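QA checklist item 7 of 12: single-chain prediction sanity check.
[x] sequence parsed
[x] length recorded as 225
[x] structure emitted
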Amino acid sequence: MKKPAFVAAGLLAALLVSTTAGATDLALTADLGTTGVGLHMSIPLQKSLNARVGFNALNYSYAGSTSNVNYDFKLKLNTVDALIDYFPSEGSFRLTGGLTYNGNKVDAIGKPSASGTYILNGNTYTTANAGQLDGKIDFRKIAPYLGIGWGNPTRKESGWGFSADAGVLFQGTPNTSLTSSGCTAPSNICNQLNGDLEAENVRLHDKVNDLKLYPVLRVGASYRF
């Protein structure tokens, strides 16, 4: 996880600790899910209300394609959560809302055909002329989160417990860009390539547009001190 995320997590944790001085029900939860591997700290604010802060991170790769180009995608998960858990029946079921520092992004590398060519917007280019196709996808940095969950790690006596989350991270419409590593063809071909890259970038945007609502599913083990 990048330095800004570590700093944000530290500041959030320090703020919660300072505002709940004397709290003895501190709990930590290690979790795993669609946001990656994470660690969260929970502190009770009232009988049915907890504050929760933490971070999540993980990288993984997968293959995908638009109608024209195949890509190798690398999803880089990197988030810091500041959440409020509300337990309406004072049991284990919870409603959760809050804000997330969102460092999630996707790197995309275009894969040429077996003959070493790309077809962009109906035009064919060789890798010798177009070079490598590099795409970047990112999202707004502050994203709201809403969800439900199970488990109140601060309620029971000290020891281990179970935790689960299901919700949605509202990342917003993704920002995409697509460039080549350098065109070596005549200027008229390079100008055509730039226009075709813009058209392909529209297709790339459509491919990842569903990520504006990112599903959050997590399970974890908690420990109350």
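[x] summary fact logged: The CA atoms of residues 22 and 43 lie 11 Å apart.
[ ] second reviewer sign-off
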